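User: My instructor asked us to take a sequence, write out its structure as tokens, and then describe one feature of it. I'm not sure where to start. Here is the sequence I was given:
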Amino acid sequence: MKILVTGGAGFIGSAVTKKLLERGDSVVCVDSFNDYYSPKVKEANVAQFAQNPNYKLYRGDIADYDFMKNIFAMEKFERVFHPAARAGVRPSIADPFIYADTNYIGTLNLLDLSKDFGIENFVLTSSSSVYGENKKVPFSETDNVDFPISPYAATKKATELMAHAYHYLHKLNVNIVRPFTVYGPGGRPDMFPFLCTKWIDEGTEVKRFGDGSTRRDYTYIDDIVDGVISAIDRIFGYEIFNLGNSDTIDLNSFIAVVEKCLGKKANIKEYPMFSGDVPITYADITKARKMLDYNPKTKIEDGMKNFVEWYQKNKQNY
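Assistant: Let's start with the prediction itself. The structure tokens for your sequence are:
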């Protein structure tokens, strides 16, 4: 197949691109290479594909409708995987407008063009953040997610709603995936697995927000990629899938895992919890197991060992 991957220079986008190319698909990547984190990281992510004849890269903004329309018209791909977004809960509180522009308007552009150009299947990347302060655990796709607690989460919920409207009105096939705290080699340098590793390795202060009891459902990148590929391949109409590890680890225990991987002790300093942060993320993946044959295999100890080995080889680039 020929597949559009938005945000294809990012962590998840480039990992999915690699898997698609390896199995023989053609990939059209669109990425703005914005400076939310160093564009050098994104340049390195796409450099590995530069000589592949089945790969094409466009540099631009998904919120630019005319730019995207020209790509749809020229490339005539069959399916869309859309992970491009302004990510991060805390920065969205400081600048909600750019989140609305990229996450909501950008997604609306893609949905409308997918309708016009007869896209077979549209895979939208949402977020576990839509669950907010959900009290029932693990989180299920049928839970009420009408109460986001950050602009980032609100934009992700909004994209899910608009995708449903396009499915209802125009019969656009949409699979929505809600990833849970993705980590692994090549991971985003703004996320805690990377930051914690960097801080402990360098002997600098580890910023722990809260008392360390918050829990996250960390999900290894290879497991996420398998779930996404399955969502690209399978057409259901309109469905939402949690992609998590369905296991949680508290912040203090996570720091201990990194300490063990590095063979160094953390210099922890406690800070107040941020508004918008949630106490727990925990995925019920029953539906994804059944309909996508999703089967995450990577334990946090093994995944972080792989990440730390990658970090030690690549930290000079950060």
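For the description part of your assignment, you could build on this observation: The first helix runs from residue 11 to 22. Try explaining in your own words what that tells you about the chain.
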